[in-house]
Amino acid sequence: MEEVKDKVMTKFISADLIGQRVKEIADEISIVYKDKSPILIGVLNGSFVFLSDLIRNLSIDCEIDFLKLSSYGNEKISSGNVTVLKELNCNPEERNIVIVEDIIDTGATLDYLHKIINSYKPASVKFATLLYKKEKCKSTLDVDFIGFEIEDKFCVGYGMDYAQKYRNLKDIYVL
Question: What is the pTM assigned to this prediction?
Fold first, then answer.
């Protein structure tokens, strides 16, 4: 346990380990999408740090866009109700899409994203997430690119927040 800012937290995943795993995921995506120039869609706000590091490690051309959804509000537990706060700017029709999430928890957002993106009739849809709570996830959809499979912990740092705080931490901590 250590005190970070005003909370007592436990360091969970170091910045070095995150960087190594992000590079590995970028290599996987680069192989799958060689010569295909996918659109990577970041789910705001949490995925922006992961997406930023991910695209800088890709060896392929890509485009990026963002959706903003919420299922947490200021709570530590997902409500299961997903709200759209920002729509896409791009047209994903007939394009290869990689949806980039910071964390997949219950899978409610995953299912919702799949429904939204498929309504545009893309060529393909795959999911990338930094953290995946496989045991807690109720979705039957495949998560194609996974950074770390974790138990049910509330994580902050590396873009993830609690009540809009702690996104700037370079390591991932458990509250």
Answer: 0.89
The gap from C-alpha 120 to its chain's centroid, in whole angstroms, comes to: 21
Q: What's CA 7's distance to the chain center, in Å?
A: 24
Is 77 domain-assigned? yes
Catalytic-labelled residue, pool 105, 111, 144, 152:
105
Confidence grade of residue 67 (pLDDT, cut at 50, 70, 90): very high
Q: Is residue 73 part of a domain?
A: yes
The model's pLDDT over 79-136, given as tens digits with 9 standing for 90+, comes to 567 778 888 999 999 999 999 999 998 888 888 889 999 999 999 999 999 999 988 8
Q: What domain range includes position 110?
A: 15-150
CATH number at residue 140: 3.40.50.2020
- Determine whether 105 is an active site residue: yes
Residue 171 lies inside a defined structural domain of this protein? no
Q: How many structural domains does the chain have?
A: 1
